[in-house]
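thought: fold this chain, then report.
action: predict
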Amino acid sequence: MGKKIICFCQDLTEPDLIRAIEEGHDHLEAIKRYTGAFMGPCQGKMCAANILKVFAAKTGQSIEELRVPTLRPPVEPIPLGWLATEDDEK
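observation:
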């Protein structure tokens, strides 16, 4: 199997996803946390169908019975510099 990328935001390949499932991550929420799938800038909009197809095939479930994990974009974007500085005035 070649490097078939199924999540471009996280550079997740099909073999990576299959390996995660074989290691016991048998729920989409676990896949999300283990691989970072659905957590890139597209929030799963571009990769969800690819991930669901592979996940359903490997686990024997139908795509219709799978539920995409809750997508939680940032509440409000902030400059990265705010996270990198120490604020002593709290």
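thought: worth noting. Residues 5-84 form a domain with the Arc Repressor Mutant, subunit A fold (CATH 1.10.10.1100).
final: tokens above.
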